[in-house]
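FAQ: What does a multi-protein file look like?

Like this. Sequence, then tokens, then the next protein.
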Amino acid sequence: MAANPTSNQKTAIRTTCFSIIGNSVLAIIKWLAGYFGNSYALIADAIESTTDIFSSLLVLLGLKYTNRPADKNHPYGHGRLEPLVTFMVVAFLVTSATIIAYESIHNIGTPHEPPKKFTLYILIPLILWKEISFQLVLRKAKQTHSTSLKADAWHHRSDAITSMAAFIGISISLIFGNGYESADDWAALFASAFILYNSYRIFRPALGEIMDENLYEDLIEEIRKVSLTVEGVAGTEKCFIRKAGMTYHVDLHAIVNANISVKQGHDIAHNLKNTLRQNIPQLGHVLIHIEPDNYE
């Protein structure tokens, strides 16, 4: 059985706090290593880690707000804020990618000293840590059905890739020596392109969510199977799902015997609604429309 929405919220908030602490520590390390190690690729990496801190704070604020109960003005709750937070996270990513690309292009045409060798030894554990963080946060995002937490996970993967690009650029600069100092800057430019690509990967699902795009075939199939276990339900027809935060709201057409009374149909609808919410805890509002079977 899936975890209930309250448990999902707590898990998502804890995971986001983990991201904030991790990104804060890594940003400081990268800024110092990039500055003293004369590596713009590492400084670019530090820029992304710094934006990750602010984007994770946005995710945290969004998760806390979406946990508010439904009220008169928001009968379906406050979950729709989550994709909006995801859009703001994407804006942070695009901004950081633009800054990195601009500075990289400027540095490529400007003679400068090659990066220091010690920066390579700093990058290796950073790459491993960011990949581990990506796997952990992505697993929690799937567990909680959180779009913004998934965006936060891809921040970690972007950071791992930019760190890897920095490692390769610095290595080329050190191995080949004079004339290859700009390899470090080319690595930062590649990192900015990858950040933009990941921005699209994060943006697209959030857009689908806020536009009520049909993205939940597996959940629809599960709803249909559970519905058939309810006494009096002969089958199902239309099933529409809209996602708000970590909650799924359902409109379901259920087929019943055409000869039963309105009271019996009403009772079946309520029993079906309760059964669905007990077996699939991440469901929010469940609206049941009763359809008669072949009437004779």
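And here is the next protein:
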Amino acid sequence: MSRQERKKILWIAGWYPSRHRPALGNFIQRHAQAASSFHDIYVVHATASDRNEIEIQQEGKVTSVVVCFRKINILPLKYWRWKQAWRKAFKKAEELMGRKPDAVHLHIIIPAGIVASAYAAETAIPLYITEHSTRYQKKLSLWESAMLKKTCKNAAVVCPVTNQLGNSLQQAGIQTAMKVIPNVVNTELFKPAAKSSTGKKKILHVSTLNEQQKNISGMLRVIKKLSEQRNDFEMEIISEYDYSEAAHYAETIGLKKEIIRFNGLQPIEKVAHAMQQASVFVLFSNKENLPCVLLESVSCGTPVISTSVGGISEWINESCGVLIDKGDEEALHKSLNVVLDQPERFNAERMHQYIKTHFSPEKIAEQFYSLYSIAEPKRTPALE
């Protein structure tokens, strides 16, 4: 196929931004934007909301159809509405593309694998899968294991975002051919900029603030300890989710408001600016795969301190940050002091070029183009 021949690819997204969840699955949206360099991407997503509606958006060669259905707590009825919403999404996407797609690409297997594998089978269209979820770092339920195996069995290729996630999928019994395609970074937006020479050093954290995964309380305890030893820094925490519980905990342990600031959902341009101005980005998670925020911070030339969980160690090295064991508050405290006091250890432009080489939209677009060009993929367990 020449580069001029564009395929129509239907992306079935288990997570995707919508009116009421504007940041959910934004990394899938960025994947779609990259893949659209060579193909027309039609994204479908179904989600419970406060009302029934269909959101249709067009951004370049990416068309998204998000079908929202009214929330209900009666499980059988909720499941029925969920499946009906997916049917509406498929129908509307086919209307917009004017025909059946050339391929189906599922993002997030559980639970959307049910509808994705059924649609691909009914239409006899090749099925590709990209997985991002951290759920495979724990033992799966019988239901989850069955859905995972059934969905992947019918796929041409499974694309984990890290080798570690691919290994976890293999340990769960997946034998489908795998090709790692990592997350994408907008390297034109996330790039080094001059830092303000006045004021205090800045520590930044951006996440969902999920305590079980992100260990927010542990991170805040370290910031409290740091504030008792030095007063030349301040911390900003950004989250699209309710931060009242984290803010209350910070107040409970005596973190002063002049030390820590909480902000809600911010435009991506403001997030990029915050990363550009930060002295260090901190992620103290108990589990992850390959968080975009780490890559984006490095792309801005800002070093990161992160726990070495999931696939993070595959890409974050000593040239762009410090990796520590999960839950090790003493190591986080020590690393913060080192990075804040020795910024010269990190070369901003070199860090940006590193991300550009591996995670730029152009680089990821080439990988998706290669994926969709596979005529008869071999079913082997080896990661490529």
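Q: Is there any per-entry metadata?
A: Some entries carry free-text notes. For the entry above: The chain has two domains: 8-184+361-372, 201-359.
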